[in-house]
Amino acid sequence: MDKWLLDLGGKWLIRIIIAMPLRGSRFTPLQNKLKISPSRLSENLLKLETLGYVKHLSPVERRHPLLPEYVLTEQGLRVKDKVTLLEALDDLIGIKWTIPILCVLYQGHYQFNDIKKILGMTPKMLSTRLRELEETGYIEKKVISDYPIQVHYSLCKVTRDKLHVFMNSEY
Amino acid sequence: MYNQGLTVWYNVSDVDTTKAFYVEKLGFECMMYDPEGGMVIIKTPTTNVEIGFSQANQVDQSSVSTVFDVDDIDEAMSILSGRGIDFIGEVETIPGLVKLATFQDPDGHSLMLAQSLSNG
Prior knowledge:
The complex is a heterodimer. By secondary structure, chain A is mostly helical. Chain A folds into two domains: 3-89, Arc Repressor Mutant, subunit A (Orthogonal Bundle); 98-167, Winged helix-like DNA-binding domain superfamily/Winged helix DNA-binding domain (Arc Repressor Mutant, subunit A), CATH 1.10.10.10. In chain A, 51% of the residues lie in helices and 11% in strands. Chain A has a two-stranded antiparallel sheet. Chain A has a two-stranded antiparallel sheet with strand order 3-4. The longest helix of chain A is centred in the N-terminal third of the chain and has 13 residues, at 38-50. Chain B has one domain (6-116): 2,3-Dihydroxybiphenyl 1,2-Dioxygenase, domain 1 (Roll), CATH 3.10.180. Chain B has two helices and eight strands; from the N terminus they run βαββββαβββ.
């Protein structure tokens, strides 16, 4: 599992990277684009900076107040490149763990305990996400045996197709 | 090479507050206002001299001063005081040159009024 996918779970981090223009952005236009509160944006930008995806430029480094306050680092630009390939799954970006779960399923791990172990998730969170994904038709759940109960999860064909380019592109 | 234009740019924490201060308190004209982009440009009484403000997450108080020339510093101070401007300290005089009165905008950027003391 790519580290960045786990780094960037949560409602805002990937969305901020997607919304950030290639040349970077000032705070206010980014805030208005994302319709996010200033404190939440600040907090998430700081997280992105700590993780090494975004660099905050000081007023001195910026030279002109209209120039970007935040720019993507090389790593941030690579992620931006990658996540644009997830556009077809746009609804799911920003729901914590969802994209990583789909990736793990794509890689052929179909048992609850395997997925849980790979992602280091709590059972409660994983079962909630799997249920949501099943209800919205992104994945299928099959009962393989009733006793002992054995369940397999797999991607629906459409989801697999949507993930294909993303999973097979370079990072 | 140079033409007649001059714009000074500042980072500010809130363009609406800045706009209200420069337009309503100082009496300047708003030339451009873009709340979505967090930008406002104010026209000073000097032709082609503008001050631009860009909303930023980090604002450092600038140590340079923008100085506005006035004919009569006492009169100007009394008008601006009436609009709620607080002046910092007393009027300072540089003999033979200027009288200066200091105040700040909402972000603490230093501003001054100056009355020339030189002849002509």
